[in-house]
From TrEMBL:
Its EC number is 2.7.13.3. It comes from Asticcacaulis taihuensis. It is an enzyme of class 2 (transferase). The modification 4-aspartylphosphate is found at residues 58, 464. The keyword Iron does not apply. GO terms for molecular function: phosphorelay sensor kinase activity. It catalyses: ATP + protein L-histidine = ADP + protein N-phospho-L-histidine. Residues 9-126, 415-531 form the Response regulatory domain. This is histidine kinase. Coiled coil: none annotated.
Amino acid sequence: MNPAHIPVPILIVDDLPENLLSLEAVLRRDGLEFIKARSGTEALEILLRQEVALALLDVQMPEMDGFELAETMRGSERTRRIPIIFLTAGVTDRARRFRGYEAGAVDFLEKPIEADILRSKVAVFSELYLQRRQLAVQRDNLKAFAEENLRLLKESRENAQALKEADIRKDEFLATLAHELRNPLAPIRNGLQILRMAPEGPRAEEVRGMMDRQLTHMVRLIDDLLDVSRVSRGRIDLRKARMSLQSAVQSALETSRPLIEDNRHNLILDIPETPLWVEGDLTRLAQVVSNLLNNAAKYTPPGGEIRLTMREHDGQADIEVADNGLGIDPDMLPRVFELFTQADRHLDRSQGGLGIGLALVSKLVEMHGGTSRAVSEGAGKGSTFTISLPLSDTHGEFAGEGLQKKQTRDAAPLKVLIVDDNVDSAQTSLWMLDLMGHRGMVAHEGVRALEMAREQTPDVVLLDIGMPGMDGYEVCRQLRQMPEMKNKTVIAQTGWGQESDRQKAFAAGFDHHITKPVSLDLLTQLLADIRLTAAKAGDPQHG
């Protein structure tokens, strides 16, 4: 509230009620509040709980006269600065005036009081009171402003330091990214040169295997980078279902075992047979466990030991991955789940990686309502990473078992239309389909794809999205308007892999969305499932 709008409190002390009423009547005006006391004791009680701008004291009062009250007020820190005007009907000799001023009075008025003079003096002290209140408010505001400035200055310095560190980490990360992407590209290019010179040479099969491993490694780097970006911006949707945590661990072991075996590590598993049920995304939880196993494999010298333990306690399921590898420095331990930590000078860059695996672990586990923690006794003493997830109260089927992995050899091949403006991509997809035993055909632009769909009625359309002219979304929408294509399978095969891209594809009528480069295993399984589903439905085209 503005101090100018606060009523000015005036204390009037007189043992006669009629004097209190007459003084109030004389002084009454807007902006003044009168507090009346009939004795010195009552006045002191008032002053203990309320601030006043001015005290008008009668001198001649029983028990405690005005002088004694003034002296008591001057003896207290709370009331010693309150201006006092004495009012007296007695004889005001020089000695009495001196005593009054000595007691702290600023004035000494004799009764009968001249109203104009008293009003004038009260107005002066009221104005002084309001000025003091205004100064106090300004002082408090300045103090708060100074404190806020100090806080902002400290915060800005901390932010500047954080930005400086982030900039250094960004530069180191970009250097690491360039290094990590060049690593697989070099052997892939060398392998192509070898195959060009000797396509059927004695090392051809070994070279192809090496190229496949390096390409898989590069795709995994890019996928991890995209995943952590999506998670950080909240643009990833978990496909949660009731699942046993053992299924995620088994899937992770299939992914990470080659790296563990290449480094000749001894892998020890302690997994209970009784399923631990959680509400989770099987693919993402398998990714979490795989990242922990890969991290242990990379930072443990060859021939080391990696132990994966799963346990249940207090409504939680814990997965613990421990190793006897390089360990973690104490100053790094609180930051191991931060983005791009691998680029830090404290870690061995020769092990590779972008420093996003553990950050992705932390974020995905958090999205599942769980926690992540790391423990290490220091450099060279190994490390232990533990994730904790809430157990589900309801038991159910394993998630991820909906795809049927078996397929009959005598089932009719699928007729697949490949639509891609990239000639090389379309041609290699055609070769893959041929190796799988399916019949493929190619269109390089949308209009031609629609013509071929009308003429050939394919069972499956592998449709690129980012094509010039008519893009894949529009092609899919027009395919769905054809009666013969209404119930056929349309798969988006694209380099656009954000969650928003997936949702846009499904809204356009796509049945599946897979990102380039497409995994041969994934495409094989997907087409096998489509063929099996069609066969079960009694489609005459599928035997």
